[in-house]
Amino acid sequence: MTTYYDDRSVRVTSTTLRVDDRSYPLAELTVVWHRRGSRSWRMLAGRGAIGVALAGPLVAALLGIALAVWLHRSPTVTIAIVGASVLVGLAVGPLADVLFEHLDRSYTRGSRELEMWARWQGRPVRLLRTADALRFGQIYRAVQRATERMPAGAGPGVAQNVIGSSGNRPSPRDRP
Question: Which residue, among 64, 128, 60, 58, has the nearest Cα to 96 in the 3D structure?
Fold first, then answer.
């Protein structure tokens, strides 16, 4: 038996798909598809907040330099204001690394709920629901690999993987 994916709640082997406490023999799954839910505005707002946090110190530095030039003070005061503004701008460096890491992770996770469905014993069953796009893709691909390697006479099998659009019941596509 080959294991294609394994974490604390999902295990995909060459014979079985286990999700939480339910097990589905791959030979009994006739069609597998996925659905994408609507966008998570909370996730998108979080990305926007990261962008504002990145731009904030730079804008403050530019405003400080503009203020120093506009005030027409002595060269010492102007240099002090410009120097402080440059230091504020340089503070973006270490902060930017952390913020870009969070931004990168948000794109890896995705901004939609994803569901994997299958036809099992003649009825549609939701196998998995997650907002983590990376994990979903790994699991979906593991199911594809497991079903591609099933012996031809092992049962109905997942001979055709059908991808239904969001919110619609899938219908099998003709494959060339």
Answer: 58
Separation of CA 140 from chain center:
14
Report how far residue 37's alpha carbon sits from residue 165's, in angstroms, rounded to the nearest whole number.
Answer: 10
The position carrying tokens 């503004």 is 85
Q: Which residue has the tokens 């002090």?
A: 80
Encode pLDDT of 133-175 as tens digits.
889 999 999 999 998 887 655 554 444 444 344 444 444 443 3
User: Using one digit for the tens of pLDDT, what is the confidence trace for 3-24?
Assistant: 999 999 999 999 999 999 899 9
Q: Does pTM top 0.90 for this prediction?
A: no
- Residue-range domain boundaries for the chain: 3-39+111-161, 41-109
